[in-house]
Amino acid sequence: MNLNTITEVKRPASADEITRWREGYAWLAGGTWLFSEPQVATDTLIDLHALHWPALAQSPAGLDIAATCRIAELVAFTGPKEWRAAPLIRDCCNAFLASFKIWNAASVGGNICMSLPAGPMISLTVALEAIYTLWPRDAAPREVKAVDFVTGNHANILAPGELLRSIHLPAAALSKRYAFRHASLTKLGRSAALIVGTRGGDGLVITVTAATPRPIQLRFPGTPSATDVRRAVDAHIPADGYFNDVHGSAAYKHHLTYYFCEQIRAELVGAGQ
Fold this sequence. Notes:
Blueprint: E1 8-10, E2 25-28, E3 44-47, E4 56-59, E5 62-66, H1 71-75, H2 87-93, H3 100-103, H4 108-114, H5 120-127, E6 131-135, E7 142-145, E8 150-152, E9 155-156, E10 163-170, H6 171-174, E11 177-184, E12 191-200, E13 203-209, E14 216-220, H7 226-236, H8 250-270
Parallel strand pairs: 1-3, 2-3
Antiparallel strand pairs: 4-5, 5-10, 6-7, 6-10, 8-9, 11-12, 12-13, 13-14
């Protein structure tokens, strides 16, 4: 879609060049949502491509993902064999309501910053205990846990002008065993529930996304029973805490959460150490 309200496109060599933020500015990464509908309140785009951030950087500490990394670049990544949860990257990329053509434009950071319940890059990074690095316009960079970033449907903790710079997936999380469950009302539809479990030395972690407006993470330091997991779901997600939309009723998503969490518990606890 043509954005006929845009009067200027800035292409800074450094994000520090944008010292003043005002209404009407918008960061531009992949732009798959930005160009999908009129942006009547936006008159200036700030293109992040000129910053030339490396898409991916692997190290013994884990995987660093630039916010501008394309989904196609991320899905092509194959980690070392000891990173047993690395295939979760492809699982979550395949949960996109998008074709491979969109994968070549859409960015990891854009999906996270849209902060929709069904954002699969949110599911991926929260499940793998990521740390986000944020760049405010008028303060030092700050780090936040992925699980604390999204606060609701299309809502997050970003301040005006604040930029998501990168996502760090720790090697410790990437080395865990994992279980993935995903459901949609249609074969290529938006996620009704996307739930991931990981198990390592710190116990079982279950991350509920898409079924709820924001990610919900359940931690079990030992070996939980089916009753333990069901009680934890009820304790962390109230009866009215499920996201009700055309992609699934709240009652349906409530049922899927119980069902998938128990499947994950049985798979990861029953698989041994």
